[in-house]
Amino acid sequence: MSVLVYVEADGGLIKKSSLEAVAYAAQVANMIGGSVVALATDKADNLADLGGYGANKVLQVSEPRLESRPVAAIATAIAQAAEKEGVSCIVMSRSSLVDAAAPRVGIKWNATVASNVTALPTQEGGFSVQRGVYTGKAFAKVVLNGERKILTIAKNILPANHNGGSAAIEPFSVDFGANDFAIKVLEVKKQEGDILLPEADRVVSAGRGLKGPENWGMIEDLAKTLGAATACSKPVSDLDWRPHHEHVGQTGIKVSPTLYIAVGISGAIQHLAGVSSSKTIVVINKDPEAPFFKSADYGIIGDAFEVVPKLKAALEKVV
Amino acid sequence: MKILVCICHVPDTTAKIKFNGSELDKAGVQFVIGPYDDYALARAVELKEKLGGSVTVLNVGEADTEPTIRKALAIGADDAVRVNAHPKDSLFVAKQIATHAKEVGYDLILMGREASDYNGGQVHGMVAELLGLPCIVPCMTLEIEGSVAKMGREIEGGKEYVECNLPLVAGCQEPIAEWKIPNMRGIMTARTKPLKVVEPTADQAAVETVSYELPPARSNCKMIDADDLDQLVKLLKEEAKVI
Q1: Secondary structure of residue A263 in the 3-state scheme
Q2: What is the block-wise mean pLDDT of chain A (319 residues), using blocks of 10 residues?
Q3: How many other C-beta atoms can be found within 10 angstroms of the C-beta atom of residue A189?
Q4: Residue B208 and residue A145: Cβ atoms within 8 Å?
Q5: What ipTM describes this predicted complex?
Q6: Chain B closest CA to A86's CA: distance in Å?
Q7: Among partner residues A107, A313, A319, which is closest to B130 by beta-carbon distance?
Q8: pTM recorded for the entire structure
Q9: What SS3 class is residue B120?
């Protein structure tokens, strides 16, 4: 049985997380026997490249009403593509769109859904996967019953390497329902030019130790040197020092970059819940008792205003 | 305005999580209303105070969840329904909510964007699909103007503002409302508010949890001299291989 993978694009290019999803889908198809069909509803220039990550063909939906990314309509497209292709599994990388669409696809396509999957599936006890639970404090092994499965996967659990291949692109038309466009988008306010935090491979984050929004320039400079996104702790966004969409933690965005640098953040359990799946954590804090040091790989005890510029200078020698 | 708020009964966010085989070790763990559901409930109470109507809370849970439901009543809900079942998985919970909502009919069905224990984030979307309703998640602002809801939500790198006609389902998170703490009068009146217990519609779990494990502990934090940051950069490059 084959696997359908839903891919998203941003600015005309397939997202890195979607490339990871295609590589993941290829491994699932290898396990259950079958091919990989990719589905794209966003405009993208590099769809054929998906072949190099493991897709055997790409279905492309060209429908102007999808440009505002209506969740219900995209869920209809995914369910109809899965039905048409006769797949047994759908793979999607987590995003604000996918998190909202996956449960709707689950009902439309009569499938079992496992969200926030953190490893490849196994056939142990049926079809089982590991998923993150208790807000990053634990993993659960779950068995998915039923013939049809949907997995939404966390970022950075599998590398996406291009092997040079390409895939044929086929147009795919969708029979949308009357309610698929019930939600009208009034306005989108998007930051331009920055690395998007949920997609970022490296993140530089700061907390109240920075003392005020006027001091964020050095955090942005360090992030720029590393090609990283900037983030902040909850008190900082509550104080309006930084926008809420930079807030990482239990009630904000959960990130899993390869490198997370925390500056002037004490490490409350709610903050750790949003960052604990980062591959490497560096903590900079002048308080040697800051609890974050217990969850870090590397720690520096020192004043952020002295350490951050020195770290930037040291990084500039090598990156 | 008839509002249904679906709440879950979860360990406090600061609780230390341990397991006995495939079960959570509940010893010493305090249970609370799901933190995201708390915001949904607070907004529902605010809307009721502004527009009139009623707020019903629903929980899928066994009898031990009743103190959590009473707390929701103390915060300002008018009545409550407990579906007498262990919440097996997202689909099971969604079907119980949809069954109740079909019977009663609500203008708004609010809940948190996810439970802080299973972190599925599926129930709102499943309920909406089962009822043929629009769904917004994560819903961070919500205003009602006549029969139209205007909402704001976060998307990657920004915000999106949308509107749609009622009825609808929303998965909420802060800053949708001011978090509410029950006062003494609320706690006293909650004791006498109606709490109806209904039996679940029979359904098998689609997803079965067979075991839990804790994440591997990070190796001890390597402390770097603040005056030798070249050493940190070397470690990030050669040991961690992240730059």
Answers
A1: strand
A2: 94 93 97 96 95 97 94 98 98 95 98 96 93 91 96 90 93 95 93 75 95 95 94 94 88 88 94 90 96 95 96 92
A3: 13
A4: yes
A5: 0.93
A6: 20
A7: A107
A8: 0.91
A9: coil
